[in-house]
Amino acid sequence: MRTTRLRRAGLAVAAAVAAFTTMTGTALAYPDPGTVTGATGVHDPSLTRTSAGRYYVFSTGAGLPVTTSTDRTAFSSAGKALPSGASWAAAYTGGDPAALWAPDVSYHGGKYLLYYAASTFGSNTSAIGLAASTSGAPGTYTDYGKVYSSSSSSDYNAIDPNLTVDASGKWWLAFGSWWTGIKLIQIDPSTGKQVSSNTTRYSLASASGGIEGSNIFYHGGYYYLFTSRGLCCRGVNSTYWIAVGRSTSITGPYSDRNGTSLMSGGGTAVLASHGSYIGPGGQMVYHDADHDLLVYHYYDANANGASKLGINYLGFDSAGWPYAY
User: Fold this and answer.
1) DSSP for 9-55?
2) Engineered SS bond to 268: which of 164, 225, 234, 256, CB 3.0-4.6 Å?
3) Of 176, 265, 257, 157, the residue nearest 216 (C-alpha)
4) How many CB atoms lie within 10 A of CB 274?
5) pTM of the entire structure?
6) 256 an active-site residue?
7) Across the chain, how many H-helices and E-strands are there?
8) Is there a contact between 51 and 66 (Cβ–Cβ < 8 Å)?
């Protein structure tokens, strides 16, 4: 699906990543994004592919904008997931029901489930909502209201949701931004909301200087926790980078390549600023038919810091650690 140029470049970068790794596990070379064209101006992208082979990318913005592609390369605008937003969310967004953030889309039980966040910048008076659609197409989502929330007195922030189904079939929602870091709750598959029999809020990762955008991906017996570290939303002054740790249990503890706990600031770099590609983050990992994918946004130094879609292949080295190529 990608160009020959991208495949050749990917192989070269994969070899470089395997060969040039520091003792801290931080790669000395990072790949450029793969070729994408058209409507690529996104922030906090979340990708899914329908059974008919159509890709949808959901992103932060009014009504949760959606772009679409049939080849994962050429994208066009396709409308909004929730054009009018969610009325309940206005209490968290400063009055605008459509000012929604950080969508997370996945397909389970015959439905596309769309988790999203409602907040204002720098606040932890925030909430996570849920909408669902049988087709996945923008404009077909029914909103099911609030899933989880935080307030100014909370030590966590209920934004940046990510739904994961573990190896035993249990559902979990990771979330969190700054404050005390990344959290996890168990989800009832029948409602898409927290299971009543387990109200524990697990702590997975914490770091000074910013941690958010969690995404959990299961591979080879491990749960890999990807996070965005540093500062987003500052154009070419953004300092975002993508870090990872892993655990044999979805509830942790997670550690990085060096064995440092993610609760103590650990994290092995997967992708960081290089050349004109600034502050990659807001990521998700998607298992597609041909490759595992790292999907993210970055700030383009050649376009006045505009936020754009990045897609790379994701591989795992001989020790089981992920790298982008």
Assistant:
1) HHHHHHHHHHH-B-TTS-BS--PPPPP-EES---SS-EEEE-TTS-E
2) 256
3) 176
4) 14
5) 0.92
6) no
7) 2, 23
8) no
Alpha helices, H only, the chain: 4-19, 90-93
268 within 8 A of 243, measured Cβ to Cβ: yes
Which residue in 44, 143, 160, 300 is the catalytic one? 44
Per-residue pLDDT tens over the stretch 245-285: 999 999 999 999 999 999 999 999 999 999 999 999 999 99
For residues 141-151, give the mean pLDDT: 98
For residue 96, indicate whether it is catalytic. no
Indicate which residue of 160, 212, 256, 300 is catalytic.
212
Q: Which of 54, 102, 113, 44 is nearest to 78 (CA)?
A: 54
Phi, psi (rounded to 5 degrees) for 170? -80, 145
Phi then psi dihedrals of residue 121, to 5 deg: -60, 130
Amino acid at 268: T
The single-letter code of the amino acid at 271 is L
**DSSP annotation of 259:** S
Q: By the 8 A CB rule, do 277 and 31 touch?
A: no
On whether the CB atoms of residues 65 and 75 are closer than 8 A, the answer is no
How far apart are the C-alpha atoms of 225 and 250, rounded to whole Å?
9
For residues 120 and 105, is the Cβ–Cβ distance under 8 A?
A: no
- DSSP conformation class of 246: E
